[in-house]
């Protein structure tokens, strides 16, 4: 923080830091040498007020103050973005409301971008109860006030409230939100103020589901300036319907939320500019004037100040200095200077008086914001201002009452008082001359003006002149002074101020009125000092006016010291004034004052001048019959003999004085009078609104002056022959023009009318709306699950296209489709099944949209069969059926089954969220047709059809082989159910070989397989064949007989611990021998083998294991091979049998 040091001597500075929070006040002092300091430990987002004052001892200057706010940085030390630092002018004061879209389409993460933008935009203003106020309303399906205009009146609390906004969610109903604003936000109850600019900033990311135009127009007609920020899918047409004009400065669009920052700076700047424009329009309707800067006071005297400033950076026509005294009864001053002048001396001020100094830059009649300082003029210092000036001259006569009533003792006090007066002046022949006259019954000259030529001689004479005594003839004494003292032979000088100081203690014994008048008329300034019994009324009649500075009374002679300083000061001031008057009379004054370019608010003054050494001219003017009588001043360079007098009042007679200013002082003025004209101006801000097909509203801000009424002329552009005219009823500033042609541009001219004539016309253009209407007879037909057709009867007029918008009645995104203007129908596609839609059809005209035709339509339910029927887990009486779910809202599934072999059938249902079931109680080995049907609210789907065959029973799946021979065998099976077309028998050797097929009639259940290989095992499969497929297979094996016959009737006997006998009947045929094999049961490895001849049919097997079961086989051996074995079993014993006991024969 830095400041400029004052010019006066000080002891130091006192600094106070306060805030609007609970932080304690901080106060500290700095030495007089300081001109800057830093303040630490400040909290972010808190407004601090810093006050600084200079002090010297117990005295303290008026304080100056400013505001500091540290903005929170969000935890980053990076350089702030330039778009975050846009600031409005200090004079930008407004009521600002942000209308924020909080619908679902925004999303919580993107809502943070909106909060950031609001913080930047609101932070651009100076926030306070008397500064800018901010409110926020969030909307979606409904609207809510987050905080109103009077809730947060400091910047920190406002920014905290914005950061704490909670995302709302819902649909986008901007029209309802604007209606809510109309009723709630810009009201006095919510903190809105009259005569302050009102701004609405709308932030939205989508199209409104309801109309916005009417509510937005009402807001604009109430003086609310609307800015719109559209994001992502915001509808451009709706943005234009809401925003103020021109749209290029009131509508901003970005494709995504993170791009808001790209337009942030420009948008905030336009909002600031809009507020400034509204403020200027409220003041004068003209552009703002840039103020000057760095106003400084260079010199301070008792009656003058020298000011200097830096020129305005804008275009100016001059500057106005306004001096307002802070003391009642003192005169204020206004001084005008040219555009190139940046310093001026303001004269004729009151000593020891505090002035408020305001400097305005001017552009024509428009002032800037003022620069303001406070300064007190110096008190009058007698010893300096009366005696140091080398050109100060005066002839002073001391007229002292020496009557008996004074007495000798008091007369000594009179001498002492006179000595004080005398020592105040610089005495000499070319400076101040003093004469002393003592009077009682007769006057007596103690010394003349030219008697003493220095101060010491005069003081000596004052100390020693005698007390004479006598009566009090004041009138005779004044006549004596006029006739005998103020004479050239007694030292009186021409063109020198003449002062007479009367000192008396009583009432005059003779007539004094006439002598006093004659003395004053001789250009003698009379001061009267009364002591004790002096009559104040008599003194006031003698002295010059005003009595406050020319008449002094004291109770006794000891009180002279109380008035000596005040009396001396008044005498010195009068000497100075009289010197100026004398100089003035000697200086060449301007002549031939004339006036031209007379208007209602200004006129030009011009004069002639015979002197060439004029430094400048002082032009002073005031209304001739003004209440306060004070002059407005202008300083004009010496080489210029003309000036335009600004800021005048219409129809007013002005007194104008022009004085030439020389190095020695000002000349006498040349005076003239001129009367301003009646003010006849132009209306401001002429605009057309509320356009219809046959009317529109014309409004304006009133013209200057005493307007009697306004005249309006209007005609279609380019068709002046159709011009019409109307007038307002008095001073109204709006009118509705009716019976206009549709879709026609009109030129409208508004001219204010005055008693003295017409003012300046102003014109604009307005266009009526096209004759627009609504389509008729909305019809919905050909509904499907995802589409419907919409038709209508045409709207009136020249329709460019029809816009069909549709949205689910229960809520959801709104979609649009457009068709050409000659179409009468549209197909709405990609709809949700089983959904009711709100449908509106609007005609688009060149001038905008017509009213909507609204209706409803409902799509059919989505009805489709399930898919992918699969059967599994098949048994002889059941199987599982499963499928892929059907689309849409399925209430349940119906499963039907039907035997293809009989009238057997059935059905069942399962809930719509299940996709499988088990079909039970079925017949074995039966083909079933299965149908799955999705059942919806209103109708059923087509069936999903499949087949499955139940499994056969255990008996049904087997087959029997009989009647085997070497080359054939019979196969038999259980007949298959249903109408079998035929059976397919398939067989092949187990060891590999050609697969053979037989076709068996469907009525047969057995057949003989022929031409087989002997001694061969065959795999046999029988499949029932139906018209629609195969049935369940019957399977088994069969073996043909061998041509080599096996032995028969195998017997075992005589088992012992290590042997047993095997016996058999011989094989038929030409057997060549027998092969006997044996091995422990389950142990093929320990196989034993014996060969015997063709005639043997028994053999003992020896060396066997004790207690072991043996398997034995006997093969017949032939020339071509061997027979199949004849098998048997026997167990060896654990021990041999003991010898049999002898048989008793007896």
From TrEMBL:
Q: What region holds the VWFA domain?
A: 95-267, 395-571
SMART domains linked to this entry: FN3 (SM00060), VWA (SM00327)
Feature: compositional bias, Polar residues: 1049-1059
Q: Which domain of life is it from?
A: Eukaryota
Q: Which Pfam families match?
A: fn3, VWA
Residue segments, region Disordered: 754-774, 1034-1059, 1126-1146
- Give yes or no: UniProt keyword Amino-acid biosynthesis: no
Q: Name one GO biological process term.
A: cell adhesion
Q: Does the keyword Cytoplasm apply?
A: no
Q: What Gene Ontology cellular-component terms does the record carry?
A: collagen trimer
Coarse class of the protein's main subcellular location:
secreted
Name under which the protein is recorded: Collagen alpha-1(XII) chain-like
């Amino acid at each position: 923080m830095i400041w400029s040091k004052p010019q006066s001597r000080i002891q130091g500075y006192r600094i106070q830091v306060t805030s609007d929070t609970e932080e304690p006040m901080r106060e500290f002092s700095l030495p007089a040498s300081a001109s800057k300091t830093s303040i630490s430990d400040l909290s972010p987002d808190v407004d601090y007020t810093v006050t600084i004052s200079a002090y010297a001892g117990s005295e303290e200057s008026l304080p100056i103050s400013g505001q500091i706010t540290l903005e929170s940085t969000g935890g980053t030390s990076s350089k702030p973005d330039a778009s975050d630092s846009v600031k409005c002018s200090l004079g930008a004061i407004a009521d600002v409301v942000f209308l924020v879209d909080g619908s679902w389409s925004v999303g919580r993460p993107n809502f943070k971008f909106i909060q950031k933008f609001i913080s930047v935009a609101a932070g651009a203003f100076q926030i306070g109860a008397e500064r800018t106020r901010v409110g926020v309303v969030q909307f979606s399906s409904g609207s809510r006030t987050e905080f109103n205009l009077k809730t947060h009146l400091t910047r920190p609390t406002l920014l905290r409230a914005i950061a704490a906004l909670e995302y709302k969610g819902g649909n986008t109903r901007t029209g309802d939100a604007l209606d809510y604003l109309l009723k709630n936000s810009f009201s006095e109850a919510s903190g809105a103020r009259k005569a302050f600019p009102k701004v609405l900033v709308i932030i939205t990311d989508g199209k409104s589901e309801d109309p916005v135009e009417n509510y937005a127009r009402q807001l604009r007609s109430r003086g609310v300036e609307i800015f719109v920020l559209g994001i992502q899918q915001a509808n451009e047409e709706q943005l234009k319907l809401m925003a103020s004009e021109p749209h290029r400065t009131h509508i901003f669009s970005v494709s995504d939320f993170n791009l808001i920052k790209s337009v942030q700076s420009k948008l905030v700047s336009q909002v600031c500019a809009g507020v400034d424009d509204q403020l200027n329009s409220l003041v004068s309707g003209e552009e703002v004037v840039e103020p000057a800067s760095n106003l400084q006071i260079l010199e301070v005297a008792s009656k003058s100040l020298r000011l200097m400033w830096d020129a305005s950076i804008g275009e100016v026509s001059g500057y106005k200095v306004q001096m307002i005294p802070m003391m009642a009864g003192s005169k204020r001053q206004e001084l005008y200077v040219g555009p190139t002048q940046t310093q001026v001396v303001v004269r004729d001020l009151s000593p020891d008086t505090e002035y408020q100094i305001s400097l305005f830059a001017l552009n024509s009649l428009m002032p800037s914001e003022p620069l303001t300082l406070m300064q007190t003029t110096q008190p009058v210092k007698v010893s300096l201002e009366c005696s140091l000036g080398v050109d100060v001259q005066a002839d002073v006569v001391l007229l002292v009452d020496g009557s008996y009533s004074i007495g000798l003792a008091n007369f000594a006090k009179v001498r002492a008082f006179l000595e004080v007066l005398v020592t105040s002046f610089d005495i000499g022949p070319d400076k101040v001359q003093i004469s002393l006259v003592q009077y009682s019954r007769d006057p007596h000259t103690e010394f003349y003006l030219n008697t003493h030529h220095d101060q010491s001689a005069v003081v000596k004479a004052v100390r020693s002149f005698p007390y004479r005594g006598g009566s009090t003839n004041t009138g005779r004494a004044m006549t004596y002074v006029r006739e005998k003292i103020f004479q050239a032979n007694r030292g009186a000088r021409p063109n020198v101020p003449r002062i007479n100081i009367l000192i008396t203690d009583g009432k005059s014994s003779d007539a004094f009125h006439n002598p006093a008048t004659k003395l004053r008329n001789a250009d003698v300034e009379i001061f009267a000092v009364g002591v004790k019994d002096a009559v104040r009324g008599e003194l006031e009649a003698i002295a010059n006016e005003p009595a406050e500075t020319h008449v002094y009374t004291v109770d006794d002679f000891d009180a002279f010291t109380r008035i000596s300083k005040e009396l001396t000061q008044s005498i010195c001031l009068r000497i100075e004034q009289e010197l100026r008057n004398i100089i003035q009379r000697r200086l060449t004054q301007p002549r031939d004052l004339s006036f031209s370019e007379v208007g209602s608010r200004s006129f030009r003054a011009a004069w002639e001048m015979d002197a060439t050494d004029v430094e400048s001219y002082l032009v002073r003017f005031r209304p001739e019959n003004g209440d306060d009588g004070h002059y407005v001043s202008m300083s004009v360079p010496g080489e210029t003999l003309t000036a335009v007098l600004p800021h005048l009042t219409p129809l007013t007679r002005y007194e104008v004085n022009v004085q030439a200013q020389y190095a020695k002082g000002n000349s006498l003025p040349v005076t003239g009078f001129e009367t301003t004209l009646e003010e006849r101006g132009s209306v401001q801000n002429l605009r057309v609104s509320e356009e219809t097909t046959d009317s529109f509203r014309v409004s304006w801000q009133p013209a200057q002056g005493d307007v009697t009424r306004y005249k309006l002329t209007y005609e279609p552009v380019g068709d002046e022959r159709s011009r019409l005219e109307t007038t307002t009823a008095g001073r109204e500033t709006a009118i509705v023009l009716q019976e206009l042609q549709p879709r026609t541009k009109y030129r409208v001219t508004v001219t204010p009318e005055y008693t003295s004539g017409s003012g300046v016309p102003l014109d604009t253009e307005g266009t009526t709306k096209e004759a627009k209407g609504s389509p008729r007879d909305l019809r919905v037909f050909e509904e499907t699950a995802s589409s419907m057709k919409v038709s209508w009867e045409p709207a009136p007029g020249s329709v460019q296209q029809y816009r069909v918008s549709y949205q689910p009645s229960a809520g959801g995104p709104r979609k649009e489709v457009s068709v050409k203007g000659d179409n009468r129908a549209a197909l709405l596609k990609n709809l949700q099944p089983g959904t009711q839609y709100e449908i509106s059809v609007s005609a688009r005209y060149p001038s905008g949209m017509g009213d909507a035709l609204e209706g409803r339509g409902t799509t059919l339910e989505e009805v489709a069969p399930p898919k992918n029927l699969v059967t599994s887990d098949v048994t002889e009486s059941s199987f599982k059926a499963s499928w892929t779910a059907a689309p849409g809202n399925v209430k349940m599934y119906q499963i039907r089954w039907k035997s293809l072999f009989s009238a057997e059938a059935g059905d069942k249902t399962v809930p719509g969220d299940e996709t499988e079931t088990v079909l039970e109680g079925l017949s074995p080995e039966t083909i079933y047709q299965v149908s799955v049907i999705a059942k919806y609210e209103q109708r059923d789907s087509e069936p999903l059809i499949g087949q499955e065959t139940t499994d056969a029973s255990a008996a049904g799946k087997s087959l029997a082989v009989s009647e085997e021979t070497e080359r054939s065998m019979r196969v038999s099976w259980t007949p298959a159910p249903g109408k079998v077309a035929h059976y397919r028998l398939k067989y092949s050797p187990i060891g590999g070989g050609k697969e053979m097929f037989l076709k068996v009639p469907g009525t047969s259940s057995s057949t003989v397989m022929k031409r087989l290989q002997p001694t061969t095992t065959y795999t046999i499969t029988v499949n029932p064949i139906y018209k629609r497929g195969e049935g369940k297979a019957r399977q088994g094996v069969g073996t043909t007989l061998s041509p080599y016959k096996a032995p028969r009737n195998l017997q075992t006997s005589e088992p012992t611990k290590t042997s047993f006998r095997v016996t058999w009947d011989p094989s038929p045929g030409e057997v060549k021998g027998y092969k006997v094999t044996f091995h422990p049961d389950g142990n093929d490895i320990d196989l034993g083998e014996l060969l015997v001849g063709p005639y043997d049919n028994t053999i003992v097997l020896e060396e066997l294991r004790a207690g072991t079961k043996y398997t034995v086989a006997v093969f017949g051996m032939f020339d071509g091979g061997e027979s199949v074995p004849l098998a048997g079993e026997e167990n060896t014993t654990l021990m041999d049998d003991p010898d049999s006991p002898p048989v008793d024969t007896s």
